[in-house]
Structure prediction request, 1072 residues.
Amino acid sequence: MATDPVYLSNRGNSIRQNQGILQESYAQYAMDKHHGTENPDGIINMATSENKLCYDLLHKRLTKPDMLYISPSLLQYSDWRAHTFLREEVAKFLTHYCRSPKPLKADNVVVMNGCSSLFSCIAAVICDPKDVILIPTPFYGIITEDLHLYSDVKLFHVPLDCEADGKDGRPFHLTVGKLEEGLKRAKQQGLTIRAVILMNPHNPLAEIYTPEEMIAFLEFAKRNELHSIVDEVYMLTVFDEHVVFHSVLSVDSLPDAQRTHVMWGMSKDFAMAGTRLGTLYTENNDLLEAMAQLGSFHGISGTTQHQVAQLLKDREWISEDFLPENRCKLKAAHSYLTGELQSIGVPYLDRPASLYVWADFRESTFEEELSLWRRFLRHKVVLSCGQAFFCSTPGWFRIVFSDQHLHLQLGQSVVSVLYDLLKTNEESDKSVEEDSAESDNAAVVNSTSSPHSKSSDQQKEKDSPVPDTGSLATKEFVLQDCQASKPTDSLDSLIGTLRHQIHASDWLEKNTPELSAGEDPEILDVFKALLQSARK
Amino acid sequence: MATDPVYLSNRGNSIRQNQGILQESYAQYAMDKHHGTENPDGIINMATSENKLCYDLLHKRLTKPDMLYISPSLLQYSDWRAHTFLREEVAKFLTHYCRSPKPLKADNVVVMNGCSSLFSCIAAVICDPKDVILIPTPFYGIITEDLHLYSDVKLFHVPLDCEADGKDGRPFHLTVGKLEEGLKRAKQQGLTIRAVILMNPHNPLAEIYTPEEMIAFLEFAKRNELHSIVDEVYMLTVFDEHVVFHSVLSVDSLPDAQRTHVMWGMSKDFAMAGTRLGTLYTENNDLLEAMAQLGSFHGISGTTQHQVAQLLKDREWISEDFLPENRCKLKAAHSYLTGELQSIGVPYLDRPASLYVWADFRESTFEEELSLWRRFLRHKVVLSCGQAFFCSTPGWFRIVFSDQHLHLQLGQSVVSVLYDLLKTNEESDKSVEEDSAESDNAAVVNSTSSPHSKSSDQQKEKDSPVPDTGSLATKEFVLQDCQASKPTDSLDSLIGTLRHQIHASDWLEKNTPELSAGEDPEILDVFKALLQSARK
Prediction:
């Protein structure tokens, strides 16, 4: 049915039309999820930050008999901050894993159905409509909607530069100076600034800030009477045993405890985004009371509260089973992805945390970045591009690596092939055009590839209106039917196809090979090697 | 810690301070819940509309093995309108139990964590801030917060009169004429009116509207281009088998399907308020799309979605076990409560639906009503008073009867004793003062008691500032220690105490007897009989 804006209010129409790149990515993926046998030509999702490596562990724990429990109070209305038993377990859990010097209190905990809800609530109670909150960019873009949709609060961006600044600097280096500068600009614009959002480990940079850095940021907030909203949802997702993450809850005496609010949740560290559970720890009673009033909009099923409490109190399972195995799997997946990026010469930030890598496919404009994002999507791989995170330099992408190895291989192979092709075209262009590709002085790790301009053909594609990726994909995407034949047959067939078609201008665009999950994963590697050599 | 308003915004402070009578009732109760052995002098809750009669049935079903199920997708992000499997089960369930002439569609279903969330979302997308929605009074007061806290939408009240109007009229009779009149008044005030809320069965009236009435209301909405938000959360809570409830989803052709949105949920009909699950059915795609955008704030755990889907698809359990037994228990509890009300001469609306009775303890002012409410609370029984539902006549109370028999007996006995005492005092006052107690021509069912004025003593109590009920209760409330002695001993002791003290002016105020759940429930009845005769 055609849209008739008369049904909704102005606000409603604006909410309805709110569709960013991240939402679109997920929507495309949701309609056409890759599945080894049921939908082998579906989309590989390297955009959504989810950990899909620990399902076996979780399944085992979550189907134990203690999870199937019902009591009258679980079926009845309860405290909107969550049942006491759950808040107590959260307090104990945070005390232990955040290494708090004193026991954290259940009364300082609010549990809601996810961190989006917590962001929305906090914004509603510390800000009036149109107030702003400072945030360094790039950042996990969904926070924009979390603060705006209900609570009408805007973010004020503090851009971090991808170039390292000075001898101690890092790419995207967050400093107090930059925060001060951002605050000054916001004030000059007459805005009311109420808070700063600090993410540690960072999303999408995967940066881990030291206690000294975090305290400096909190001191900045204190000096300026800003609340600090500290998002630590990746605190246990650190996969290098030599790196220690320091929660602000481990700090003996916070600069401004009444204005420091710490978020955590089950989505990332426990790979349970579908459980919808986020926690807030704060000593500010006013905030706690106000949040409780909004709790009726963000309640969690009593049975889910029970299950999460059981999980959080099972310290043995967490520390001896889940975390070590999770770290090991994350490390392997991270190694694989970064190895692949290195092999195609894509720079990235090498960080031992989170579920993603922040990689530099440097482009000249955000239009080009979006075009590359669309090209990946047309070839059935969805990534998150930098502009969805308000990155100030075009061409950065967040690539999620915490997926089954075959998905990761398939996705990464498409990325590699497309990127290789891009580079090849570009190099041949360069010899003809000799145009102004400047040298890349970004202090990124592991590579020194240079930015590239695009051929006029590619440019044309990029300038065309947003394609209907759903139908386009169906038209352009011809699946290599590897299932119908034995692996060796399909390899022969692939080689033949490759030999004949590889030099046709847009063959790779039109025929991204895909191997089903049911097949021998090695085929993919072989295929890739063949692809490389065939192109020479 | 003392409140420092500097931490929160103006909006935040106003949210924090939002504390109505219903919220206060629940907060008091939550701090001091009655329990037979662990807290025998705790508060009996006859205020919160929860069904506590079916726990055994639910426990049995909810601990069956099919409830303990985990799949990868349940642990991952999903469609914010809910998983398809759940929306499909909701559509099938509503098709069957609402007797829809054609199968309802999963795509027209949104599932969120409770009906408060649905109200908040609908308000956000069909209204701009400060717009209003029409609602007949009395109504379930929490809707005020549901629409206002996040979405800044106000209700415009259409008062219904407790007196029957004309020969076909009923008390609190909702008519199209009254809606038209309300709309006219709202327009005269320059307000933008976007919708009307219709509850069927009604809360707190328990009124069941006929299909003809509902269609007339929907026609009114259509004529005036208003959305109709139809709340049917009590649709299966009809306990007279001769009465058939008609959902608007059973209507062949709705007057304005694009503006008709039907709410239902698990809280009332399945006695699972703690599960936090509400459903919306609408054919309006704009609304569905806009609601989906807000869904990230109102998500439900994947495992809970699975459990509810299992329950809803178990048609045999619902229709052959749960509903018949639930109806039977509700009918018995309703009979008991209404019998007690009759015996003390309190008029009430006799309706075969819902979990509560709307009863007439007629008072002259809302201050007096509030004072009576406080008096009940001081004696450890919490009810909901009419002003919490914006009733236009003082003295009406909503009494929830769907609790274990002993709780119901204990609560009702306190209500009866206090009310009897009130009447006795009043009658003796009357003979002295002969003041202006007007005759009661309210067309309420089952009684013709007249309104009463209060003695000056009582009036003094009422005019005193709001007491700290918690501490007052502790001071005033002396528990009869029935547990320490055998039933007969405690009866003897009670009789003795009664004989000596019953004529002291405020003895009942100070010494409400209470019997623990561990004792023979008959004691209570005996005690009550004794109390009656002792006072003669």
